[in-house]
Amino acid sequence: MATQAETQPKAVDSGRRPYRFAAEQFWRMIDAGIIPDDVDVELVAGRIYRMTKHEPHNFAVGRLAESLRSMVPQGLYVREEKSMSHDQRTILEPDVAVARGDLKDFRPSPPATSEAALIVEVCASTRTADYRDKVRLYASAGVPLYWVVDVDGRKIDAFSEPQGSGREAGYARQATFLEGQAAAVVLDGREVGRIDAKDLLPPIEPPHES
Question: Domain range spanning residue 134?
Answer without folding.
Answer: 54-83+91-199
